[in-house]
Write a structure and sequence with these properties.
By secondary structure, this protein is mainly α. It has a single domain, classed as Rna Polymerase Sigma Factor, Chain: A (Orthogonal Bundle), CATH 1.10.1740. The chain is built from 10 helices and no strands. The protein is elongated. The chain starts with a helix and ends with a helix. The N terminus is likely disordered.
Length: 197
């Protein structure tokens, strides 16, 4: 489940407001850091969801912000906060895979008790799409996860990650093309397996 703070931040703060929040947080204002968390938690969640199992994402979101807080004074250009935080999230995902046990599978399945719930079909479809997104190249995977799962707009993605608007547009366009192809392949493979069984 998503935490209330993740759902609360529906629109990005202006760049100037983020700069002043970062500067206040650098001076020890915990409330300002809390507001940065509310603004950027969706981005961090999406970046991590593109890289690690869903069951680990919520804890890792917290870890990213816990790592960022003591390092905040090392950020020289406060306008680069989003890109800086995104890099911490990507590094935390890499650390997760370096330190996780090799027998932990990236595949996600429904728990037995969830298979009989009314939402099981929707959850199954969501996992199907999530696996398809994760099969894409990293550049497209992250941007699509932020757009389709986190509900961020193209301009929000650009503002939060530090990517240019043009890069986000291109990544979304090419990523959607590849996602459609991946979904068609997965759907074809699933229907062929069903027909054989």
């Amino acid at each position: 489940m998503r935490s209330p703070l993740l759902a609360r931040a529906s629109s990005p703060a202006t760049a100037g407001a983020d700069d002043s929040l970062v500067k206040a947080a650098q001076m020890g204002d915990r409330s300002a850091f809390g507001q940065l968390y509310a603004s950027y938690a969706r981005m961090v969640h999406g970046i991590l969801l593109a890289r690690v199992p869903h069951s680990s994402v919520e804890d890792l979101v917290q870890d990213v912000f816990l790592q960022a807080l003591p390092r905040l004074n090392s950020l020289r250009d406060t306008s680069r906060f989003g890109g800086w935080l995104a890099a911490i999230a990507r590094n935390r995902a890499a650390d997760f895979h370096r330190h996780s046990k090799p027998d932990i599978a990236f595949e996600e399945t429904l728990h037995t008790e969830e298979k009989s719930s009314p939402d099981a079909h929707d959850r199954s479809e969501a996992l199907f799409v999530l696996q398809a997104i994760r099969s894409l190249p990293e550049t497209y995977r992250e941007t699509l996860m932020l757009r389709l799962v986190e509900g961020m707009t193209g301009p929000e993605i650009a503002a939060h990650t530090g990517l240019t608007h043009g890069s986000v547009r291109v990544n979304l366009h090419r990523g959607m093309q590849q996602l459609r192809a991946a979904l068609a392949r997965k759907a074809g493979a699933s229907s062929a397996a069903t027909e054989e069984g």
